[in-house]
Amino acid sequence: MRLVSESGEVLPEVVEIMKMAVAKKVGIGFGHTDFQELLPLSKKAKELGVRATLDHPLLELNKLLLNEMLELADLGVYVGTYCQPMIPSLYQPVADPMETIKTIQAIGAKRCIIGSDFGQVLHMDSIDGMRVFIRALLAFGIKEDDVRIMLHDNPAKLMWLD
To answer: Which of 89, 103, 126, 157 is the 20 to 30 A CA-CA neighbour of 133?
Structure first.
């Protein structure tokens, strides 16, 4: 299901959901979609005061270019980075951890969120996945303070807990 019309307008029912999210102080995720939908969604989110995050912008399914992620982050949307695709698994046996590192460095910790998204049958569980992910981030040069911002502070802001 598309969230934006052929002409690039955010669908009325999506606008209503965004308004409800603001009223109830709930953050939203934009789901697995492409830049053509994410740009109008992000603009509408900014207009309405919605707090939102990009779901898996580095996953091959709906991979975004760095300049696209930067443009969306400039509109106030958090860029989600996850264990997958940074950590190899049976679902994705080949992974380039530096892609996630470079994305975080380019966008900045204050505009990123990290999450596990593990726990499926062929992945390690979510807690172990986060442990490995955090160790990898630190090992590849992401500062401990930045990990805290992406793991604690930004998700709290997304969920209006700030």
So the answer is: 157
